[in-house]
Design goal:
This protein is α/β, with parallel strands linked by helices and 289 residues long. It is built from 13 helices and 10 strands. The model has no long low-confidence stretch (mean pLDDT 96).
Amino acid sequence: MRLIKLNNGVEIPEIGLGVFRTENGEETVNAVKWALEAGYTHIDTAKMYENEESVAAGIKAAGFKREDVFITSKILPADIILGKTAEGFDQTLRKLESDYVDLMLLHFPMKDEMNIAAWKTLEQYYKAGKARAIGISNYSNRQLDVILANCEIAPAINQIHIDPTCNEDGRIAYNMSKGIYMETHSGFGGTGRTQGVLGHPAVVAIAEKVGKTPAQVVIRWNLQKDCIMLPKSVHKERIASNLDVYDFVLSAEDMAILDSLDDPNHPRHLRDPESSYEMWASRLAESQK
């Protein structure tokens, strides 16, 4: 698997197992174990997923040393709002049974001043060796610029929703122009939209032509756009299959066809970072009633 060198020199595997909506306990333990046995060395979790301890257990179950696995986690939106980024970071380290994470992200953008304060905390943890790299997730170009104008250490990653119907080429180009790599979450469409991506006639036709699965085609499309891909599965065979993408290349014509599937009317739940604070502040208020 190709390793991508980030802007601070740290190398990240270009494919990682995502564990969003993977149940804490046996389901996550098995998914992580199977992924590592299949050849993955990159696991993407978050405090929000409530399965960080199972990620640690899965690494142990596979017989891997901590230093042999690249682990990404993310700061909870509520912790950013409440000014508890440090507490959230420490909780993640305890659950992962580790002194450090390889990559820590601010999971969603909040108000600008909150983002800046949380970023300053990540910088402190980075300087202390508790994060090998730091970054952001679901940030717009404007929100990224606010961080860049107020940071000592530039983000290494921006993780956003990218799939052929939501290709985000403008944000990819902008982030890369700043030396920031893009990482794909919801690469198969996300909750409730998988069939719309993997079942899209154009994706299916290309898969049949190259003798691969639609999922493998979408993963390959991401990699050829120089995006880091985080396919999610809890099925052993699919986890292994999602890594089997290095024996074919999509043609320029195939890439253009997939790029053309971008839908400007795609639901903006994760494509509208500017409304992120309102969504998470409302959820926090409800949880505190």
